[in-house]
Amino acid sequence: ARPRKLSVRLHPYGEGRLLLLARDVTAVEQAEVMRRDFVANVSHEIRTPLTVLAGFVETLQTLELPADERGRYLQMMAQQAQRMQTLVADLLTLSRLEGSPLPGAGEWTALAPLLGQCEQEARSVALALGKTLDLHFEPAPGARIGGVASELLSAFSNLVSNAVRYTPDGGSVTVGARVLPGGRLEFTVRDTGPGIAAEHIPRLTERFYRVDRSRSRETGGTGLGLAIVKHVVQRHGGELRIESRPGAGSTFAIELPAARVRTEPAAALQG
Ligand code: ADP
């Protein structure tokens, strides 16, 4: 067992007696350490692009540069600004998820158009990174899911865009959704990327945990994607599974409970 941390106080208690009060503060301390780590991580993530931006501003102010070089600098500045925007957007998403109550299954959304959006996004991420990938999408026909559509879309598309980002040129990404016999829905993203060593897998959903920091940054990662996915999936009563081995690619799967899944009868699909 891990050592516990106790906070102990002594109080005078009647004639010649003392009362000893001991409180277990292990959890409080752990939460404080996590909070401090988080603030340090956020500060670091913001400082890096800011340093680069400030450097470019100074260069542009002090040097007379030819137009094309100036253009290149401005382009790199725009990239750093974009990076900070993405980071702030992800941070806001996380804090919104943490603060809001569990969604009811009142809102039902067809799965196929959500997957269509994921596919479009995947293609544009691949294009932006200059990669040619074999992309397959196999949606479950007629499936509807209950919950917050925008959150579920962001969970699905985070997994898909990770697969695209980490799979090298020429590889393949297969996205599938199917309703399992018991009525649960399984959404899977399989890639032929580098794979992930076992010791990293349990930590991937921690905020800012990355196996390879520079690889993540190069492809526009904030280190928050899987933390967002985990939150969304948990809020919807589902489960995130990760299967991966170095050199053998990765499979990320989201399972949603039957209560959040409906299938339209085939006749209704025609309309
Ligand atoms: P990031 O923005 O860094 O991608 P994520 O939270 O989405 O942050 O993922 C955390 C880490 O998990 C990544 O930095 C990467 O090391 C690893 N990872 C995620 N998806 C994959 C994948 N499909 N293949 C290999 N590694 C992955």
From TrEMBL:
Top EC group: transferase
GO CC, any one term: plasma membrane
One Gene Ontology MF term: ATP binding
GO process terms (BP): cellular response to phosphate starvation; phosphate ion transport; regulation of DNA-templated transcription
Protein name: Phosphate regulon sensor protein PhoR
Record key words, sorted: ATP-binding, Cell membrane, Coiled coil, Kinase, Membrane, Nucleotide-binding, Phosphate transport, Phosphoprotein, Transferase, Transmembrane, Transmembrane helix, Transport, Two-component regulatory system
EC code(s) of this entry: 2.7.13.3
Metal-binding keyword on record: no
Reactions listed under catalytic activity: ATP + protein L-histidine = ADP + protein N-phospho-L-histidine
Organism: Ramlibacter lithotrophicus
Annotated compartments: Cell inner membrane
Histidine kinase domain span: 41-260
Predominant subcellular localization, coarse grouping: membrane
Membrane topology type: Multi-pass membrane protein
Keyword Transmembrane helix annotated: yes
Annotated function: Member of the two-component regulatory system PhoR/PhoB involved in the phosphate regulon genes expression. PhoR may function as a membrane-associated protein kinase that phosphorylates PhoB in response to environmental signals.
